[in-house]
Amino acid sequence: MKTLVMAGFALALMSGTALGDTIKIGVVGPFSGPAALQGKNFQAGIDAWLAINGNQIGDDTIEIVYRDLPAADPAQSAALTQDLIVGEGVQYLAGYYYTPDAMAAAPMLEEANVPLVVFNAATSAIVNASPYVVRTSFTTWQTSTPMAAVARERGINKMITVVSDYGPGVDAETAFVTGFTGAGGEIAESIRMPMNTNDFSPIMQRIKDSGAEGVFAFLPAGPATLGFMQAYVENGLKDAGVTLVAPGDLTQESDLPVLGPNALGVLTTFHYAVSHDSPENAAFVEAASKAIGNPSELSFPSVGAFDGMYVISKMIEATGGEQDAQAAVEAVKGLAWTSPRGPVSINPENRHITQNIYLREVAEVDGKFINKEIQTFENQNDPGWKAP
Ligand code: PHB
Fold this sequence. Notes:
The protein is an alpha/beta fold. Helices cover 39% and strands 24% of the residues.
């Protein structure tokens, strides 16, 4: 007995005075199924952050606990979130690719005393669903608003809009129509497609029949965006000179090798391009490429996750590892840093990320298709956020 006590005392001395805790971070995302590449990018962003910064914060060790949610499924999201909180005892929640999944988790946060850092879901209203939600991705209002100005500047008078019929699609449509008509443009028609649409030929016919000079489109990045881009070319709209403009979800880098020359010249507005030219992005791309294995699979969800990990690390630092969601969220309001995407900050009013939005054009550089940044809209807040 005496030797045991002595041994324990020696161990405590060797490891410093306070023995640290393990802090679990629960991450929900699509890690299997058709959108698995998007979840793989969450993981690449997390792994890149851990490779650069390590898994120790003060005395504490962070541990990531993953839960697979292949499609937008609010009931399953609520069940997985509940299991992470109660079963795993996570102190932080993160990830959430689709808006309905983030919305389903938000009502549990206050009682659980757990902050949620959204790595992707992009409907403006999500931050109003709980005071414990912080977001490091973008909103479709934020990414679509500058595109309306660009389309007008490029002399397009009449547009048609096509979006997936759920939160981020409706937000994208509203942002684009507001900006475009506000700048004197005309909208021929606004089409909302069910989320599970995968035959886009009838939509392409409606676009042709509308007589619009251009189409603005939003779909959640994944198999649907690739299918939409291919249908635009295969149905002859590109050849007919119908200009396609979109937020960058439609030309995510992981789709560019497949789209190839068909995507050349497509204009998009977005918060992040893998080709962004900065030392911070070079370091990030190096680490994230190693993490994902195949660098051509890297895409925007990785940067939402990487910056999300930074925000969570600041929350853990500020609370000394104690579980205090309110103090953790308070601590990151106004936090500013240089992300791989450029300068960013957390707006203290809505807990959403303020950032540059870039106009990009798909270009071929050294035999590789990239989203080449050609113009910067600096320091963009979320224009879609309304005080609750
Ligand atoms: C969303 O569901 O909020 C969402 C998903 C994928 C995107 C953008 C938004 O590319």
